[in-house]
Amino acid sequence: MTDNSDDLASGESSHPGLVKELLSKEAWRFRWEKRLTNVTVGLILLFYLSLLGFVFFGNVRVSIGAWYFFGSVRPHSTGDIPIIVSLSTVPTLLLIALLRYFHHRPKSDQDDIQAPLPISVEAAKEIIKATTDAMKGS
Questions:
Q1: How far apart are CA 83 and CA 57, in angstroms?
Q2: Rounded to an integer, what distance in angstroms lies between the CA atom of residue 55 and that of residue 84?
Q3: Could you give the CA distance from residue 38 to residue 76 in angstroms, rounded to a whole number?
Q4: Using CA of residue 74, residue 77, residue 79, residue 81, what is the dihedral sign?
Q5: Which of 89, 90, 91, 81 is nearest to 58 (CA)?
Q6: Would you say the pTM of this structure is higher than 0.70?
Q7: What SS3 string covers 38-68?
Q8: Is 18 helix (H, G, I), strand (E, B) or coil?
Q9: Nearest to 59 by CA among 49, 73, 48, 71
């Protein structure tokens, strides 16, 4: 995989330095976006697990003694509401920020090239076009 003799940057291009620089920049951006996604998803999972733990196990009290075992659950108080709201809001905002980043990030020139549509989609487009033309004519 490290054989550089047949790559695009060394021989198939008229500007090998420029191509190599663009390829390394794109590879760095891909690695950075992958790490960003992993860290963000990890933080989101951590916050949601903390929220579940706080809601379901935060108010469980267990008392164990030499000859007794006692468990109780108290309801959440109004002082717990800011904790619950923050534990649910922060991961939602992180997820929205990550999705907005990938939606608005600068696209490379190769993303502008449209892939050919499958034959079934082309046929469906032709059928829709024919039916709309027939409806306009009548």
A1: 14
A2: 8
A3: 33
A4: positive
A5: 81
A6: no
A7: HHHHHHHHHHHHHHHHHHHHCCEEEEECCCC
A8: helix
A9: 73
pLDDT of the chain along its 138 residues, tens only?
A: 455 555 555 555 566 677 778 788 888 888 988 998 999 999 999 999 998 888 888 788 888 888 888 888 888 888 888 888 888 899 999 999 988 888 887 665 554 455 566 667 677 777 788 888 877 776
- Which helix H or strand E contains 130, and what residues bound it? helix 119-137
Residue-wise DSSP of 65-112: -SS-EEEEE-PPPGGGHHHHHHHHHHHHHHHHHHHHHHHHSPPPGGGG
Tokens of 26: 């794109």
Q: Which two tokens stand for residue 8?
A: 């695009």
pLDDT of residue 1: 46
How far lies 28's CA from each of 19, 21, 22, 35, in Å? Answer: 14, 11, 10, 11
The β-bridge partners of 106 are none
Tokens 């697990």: give the residue.
49
